[in-house]
Automatic annotation (TrEMBL):
Residue ranges of the region described as Disordered: 459-482
UniProt KW keywords: Nucleotidyltransferase, Transferase
Keyword Nucleotidyltransferase: yes
Top-level taxonomic group: Bacteria
GO molecular function, one term: nucleotidyltransferase activity
THIF-type NAD/FAD binding fold domain residues: 173-314
Alphabetical list of InterPro entries matching this protein: ThiF/MoeB/HesA, ThiF_NAD_FAD-bd, Ubiquitin-activating_enz
Protein name: ThiF family adenylyltransferase
Length: 506
């Protein structure tokens, strides 16, 4: 849920008189490869007559009817939420189980989606469960691993049974002495994805490992080339030809810092099903890509799935006689609910996205005709700048999860010539922003983010089969019915951007 929804729910449910209270909320599903998330979109608070507050709170049938008809109208799933006067992740009382057992078949029959039960403790800690139909007339509790609250900060509430606190040895004593054990336990259990394993991505991977993150996902279809050796952390001549994701994964395992380390290395584009679904399993993503289409995809993921994305970009060029650098700037920002999106920040334009989508950028004659300052011609960068940008992105990450003294960052930009960091940026979207409009839409928007990626396929075909990780077979619908899915996606994208200031000339 977003921070805004968390605040309004907490205000209603955690009562001064210490009585329990309840309400219904509405969700859309976000389906990753291994994780299903219920994204809370809206809440319908009870009127006075809608529930009885007497020790164990209960609701009146009219309130349930109101909730189900609203859910039906808007294609929502239903969340039943109540409070307990105790702190921490809450288990269920016999009454709770009885109430939700009664709701499960009715909600499933009406909405087609499992009811989600949630409980908030007196300290604001959330717990949640899905009620899954396992046989005819049988519904079982499937406890959630986490409840995530996303906005200016990222607060994750962990189910200690499914995600127990990790233990740390001497190798983390100095990190833990900086921010204490409970922050470390929280950070280490996150699942973080890095999209783009080039110069910036490889430094971020290193930093996340040494910050104690145990679950990492690397997404990049590129292989290491000779021209990468001046910027790719730890790569040497003998690594040329390897997938960047495999190389970094193996290298980080060699450090042997955490026994529970789990890294998924995926040689895919974020616009392909395997890449997108793996990203939807993450709690937070780093965008280390430099093309408009993956940026647009990541921007969409952030808002439609409540997954914050930390993005950065470097813009540098030499002077006209190549006697020195003319200017260099790099910028780091976090996008997602309650923050400005990449499009409003000017990190890509819809017309650049459609240009990349058209395939013209693979045509050398087309590229030749583009102006020098076109984004495809802006490839200059050096390791020292990447290092600084990766540092700024890691600071965005730490600021978001630690929020020292309740402070959070907006976008920040480094001006190399003057050595200044500018932080005077807007941090909210324009009113008619099309990305923000996808907030909490989950799978219905994710579908239109899927595209075939011929260059990624080409890159994978170069590499021998045995080094490829085992991944779930693509949905037959996407492989056999390629055209129709792409056409559908394009149609939807077109509708999305039709009246925007940019154009998608499909
Ligand atoms: Zn209860
Ligand atoms: Zn926006």
């Amino acid at each position: 849920m977003t921070e805004d929804i968390n605040v309004s729910l907490s205000n209603h449910l955690i009562r001064d008189d210490e009585q329990e209270d309840l309400c219904f909320a509405f969700y859309k599903a976000s389906t990753g490869n291994q994780r299903i998330t219920a994204l809370i979109n809206e809440v319908i608070f009870p009127e006075i007559d809608d529930r009885n507050i007497h020790g164990n709170v209960s609701f009146n049938p009219d309130y349930f009817d109101k909730a189900t008809s609203y859910a039906l109208k808007n294609e929502y799933g239903i969340v039943f939420i109540h409070s307990h006067p105790f702190p921490g992740w809450q288990r269920m009382s016999t009454d709770d189980i009885e109430a939700e057992t009664m709701l499960a078949p009715r909600v499933k029959a009406i909405t087609g989606l499992p009811v989600v039960g949630m409980t908030i403790g007196s300290d604001g800690t959330w717990s949640a469960r899905f009620w899954e139909k396992t046989a005819s007339k049988t519904y079982d509790i499937k406890w959630c691993e986490t409840v995530r609250v996303v906005g200016n900060g990222l607060n994750i509430h962990y189910n200690e049974n499914l995600k127990p606190k990790p233990k740390f040895g001497q190798e983390f004593s100095r990190t833990i002495s900086s921010w204490g054990p409970s922050k470390q336990e929280s950070i280490s259990r996150m699942k973080v994805g890095i999209v783009g394993m080039g110069s910036v991505g490889s430094i971020i991977a290193e930093a996340l490992l040494r910050t104690g993150i145990e679950n990492l996902v690397f997404i990049d279809f590129d292989t290491i080339e000779r021209k990468n050796l001046d910027r790719l952390l730890a790569a040497s001549e003998k690594d040329i030809g390897k997938f960047k994701v495999d190389f970094q994964k193996n290298r980080l395992f060699d450090v042997n810092l955490r026994k529970g380390l789990d890294i998924e290395a995926l040689p895919y584009s974020i616009t392909e099903k395997t890449g997108l679904e793996a990203a939807l399993d993450c709690d937070l993503l780093f965008s280390c890509v430099d093309m408009p289409l993956p940026r647009f995809t990541l921007d969409g993921i952030a808002y439609s799935n409540f997954i914050p994305v930390i993005d950065g970009g470097i813009d540098t060029n030499p002077n006209s006689d190549l006697s020195n650098i003319e200017q260099a700037r790099w910028k780091a920002h976090t996008v997602g609910p309650q923050r400005i999106c990449m499009q409003c920040l000017g990190q890509y334009t819809p017309s650049d996205v459609s240009l990349e989508q058209s395939g013209e950028l693979d045509n050398p004659y087309y590229i030749k005709g583009l102006p020098k300052d076109h984004f495809v011609n802006r490839g200059e960068n050096v390791f020292g700048f990447s290092l600084s940008l990766a540092g700024m992105e890691i600071q965005q990450f730490l600021s978001m999860v630690l929020q020292p003294k309740g402070i959070y960052y907006g976008p920040k930009e480094m001006d190399f010539n003057f050595g200044n960091i500018d932080f005077d940026f807007e941090n909210s979207c324009e009113k008619d922003c099309h990305i923000k409009a996808q907030l909490g839409q989950g799978d219905s928007f994710n579908k239109i983010l899927l595209f075939d990626h011929p260059n990624a396929e080409k890159s994978r075909n170069k590499i021998q089969e045995p080094t490829m990780p085992k991944v779930k077979k693509a949905n037959p619908k996407t492989s056999s019915g390629k055209d129709s899915i792409i056409k559908k996606a394009i149609r939807k994208l077109k509708n999305l951007f039709d009246d925007s200031k940019g154009t998608f000339p499909f």
